[in-house]
Every structure is written in C-alpha cells, then in structure tokens.
Amino acid sequence: MHTTDDRGHDRDHDPDEPTAPITDEVHDTSWSANLETPRHADDRALTVRDALAAIDHTTPGNHVNLVTHGSLGHPETFLYEAIEAADDGLDPEYVEQCGCGGHVTRVQV
After folding, report:
1. 46 Cβ partners below 8 Å, 6+ apart?
2. Segment Disordered: which positions (predicted)?
3. In whole angstroms, what is the distance from residue 29 CA to residue 9 CA?
4. Rounded distance, CA 75 to CA 52, Å?
5. Measuring CA to CA, which residue among 42, 44, 21, 34 is closest to residue 104?
6. I need a labelling partner for 33 at 20 to 30 A (CA). Which of 39, 55, 88, 104 fits?
C-alpha cells in the first residue's frame, strides 16, 4: 500500500520496485520538482538523474526549482557539477534551505 504524509511525501517505497521518472510532462512554465521523497533520501545518483530529467522537461525561458532531500547535504556537493556538465549554459543557483531540512536549487533553462 502506498501512503503519503500531510506534505505529500512518500511514506512507503519498495527499494526493489523500479522508480517512475520525476516527470513525463514537458513544463512550459516555471515549476518545482520534488526530489525529497524517501527514495531520494539516500540515493544521490537517483536524485541527480531525476534532477537532470526535470531540467530536460523544462522549456527554454523557464526555470525549475529542484527540491532535494536534506539528508543528502547541500546540493552544491553532489548536484551542481552534474548540472553544469550536462549543459555548459546551465548555472544552478542556490535559493534556500526549507524548514523541513531540504534544499532548493533553481535552474534557469
């Protein structure tokens, strides 16, 4: 059974179950990608993969806020280099730390 808490965060996740992509939709507006789920909490590779997918699904002229799990630490330590390597024109910008401990990074596409 799949449940979420009052903030919409996943409570249950089978680690052997394949993970769905962060989005299948192309966003023609600025948006936020939730990379704070329990499956992201201890998986930097998954977080980077989903962050890059979120960027790829954001149309030029818009930004995506990448909200990463606090347990992964500051996103500069694991995410920024991957974003910059994926596209030389991308410049991740740290926005803030959320009250729940997560971090928000904005990427203008």
Report:
1. 19, 39, 40
2. 1-39
3. 23
4. 13
5. 34
6. 88
pLDDT given for residue 56 in this prediction: 94
Cβ atoms of 91 and 58 closer than 8 Å: no
Other CB atoms within a 10 A radius of the CB of residue 61 amount to 10
Read off the tokens for 45: 């590779």
Which tokens belong to 44?
């930097």
Residue matched to tokens 């329990």: 38
Hey, where are the domains in the chain? Answer: 31-108
Residue for token digits 């890059």?
Answer: 52
Model confidence, pTM:
0.79
| Distance of alpha carbon 102 from alpha carbon 104, whole angstroms | 7
